[in-house]
Amino acid sequence: MLLALLGSPPLPAQEAPPSLYQRLGGLAPISVVVSDFIDVLVPDEQLNANPAIDAARQRVPAPYLKYHVTAMVCQVTGGPCAYHGRGMKESHAHLNITEAEWQRMLVLFQEVLARHQVPEQETRELLDIVGSTKADIVSTAAQ
């Protein structure tokens, strides 16, 4: 029996399922969705009612933000990009982001994903990734 096992051909390697990055279509579609998201996020009046967010919007150019968010999404979804920006906590601590502002951002994000017809499974996975950053972004002092 041992000889039969040793002499049998190797089992075919199972292919890994496609990464979220691959299922989203790669860098081009990700960059388009991120660009559209930043385009609705930056001028949002509800978010900019927070003086710290409004000041950051004036200070950080949207193309710079688009570049970093695209690299981050590419990386965290399994793509070949490397995010080299600051951590979420460091980037957002001074903004005093409230739960209401977090929820507003989620609404805007979901609207952009729907506009681009991102499938339900991929939308859920992206929302899970975004949700994993909440503790580093929403200020407990601002609750």
Automatic annotation (TrEMBL):
Pfam families: Bac_globin. Gene3D superfamilies: Globins. The keyword Heme applies. SUPFAM superfamilies: Globin-like. The keyword Cell membrane does not apply. Keywords: Heme, Iron, Metal-binding, Transport. Heme binds at residues 68, 92. It comes from the Bacteria. InterPro entries: Globin-like_sf (IPR009050), Globin/Proto (IPR012292), Hemoglobin_trunc (IPR001486). GO terms for molecular function: heme binding; metal ion binding; oxygen binding. This is Globin. The lineage of its organism: Bacteria, Pseudomonadati, Pseudomonadota, Gammaproteobacteria, Aeromonadales.
